[in-house]
User: Fold Beta/gamma crystallin 'Greek key' domain-containing protein from Ataeniobius toweri.
Amino acid sequence: MGKITFFEEKKFQGRCYNCSSDCADLHTHFSRCNSIRVESGVWVIYERPSYKGFQYILSPGEYADNQQWMAFSDSVKSCRAVKNIYGSSWKLRLYERPDFGGQVVDCSDDIPSAYDAYKMREAYSCVVTDGAWVFYDLPNYRGHQYLLERGEYRQHSDWGASSPGIGSFRRITEF
Assistant:
């Protein structure tokens, strides 16, 4: 398991909370989060309790302000560690229609632009057979983030997206 420290103020100042396990409700530990230090592991933080709302996937490192993890606010209400149960291979299959219909794209590499690589702007469903992945709604790993672990996603809302737009995606390789 990893370790993550949340700070209420920017540049690792103010009240802090050290966490080393999944937590569905962080509101008793701090009221806002403006900087984070990830000492080990890959973490998903959520803007709402019970692993809901916008997601941000953080690898080991220091995030001196919430813009560094592309946050839209200072709200962090739950977190969980991404478990390294995937080995060292990555594979996913994207579909242009819900329920695994339409054009199919197989991928095993990071893709900075889904449109440039596959002429695809939307993915309505997906199957992840190997590895853990992060989808972004904008090219070059920008915008809203969505964690996809091994499994079937019949529609884009299954991975937490409000629309099927996909700009880029990458493998999670650091654990």
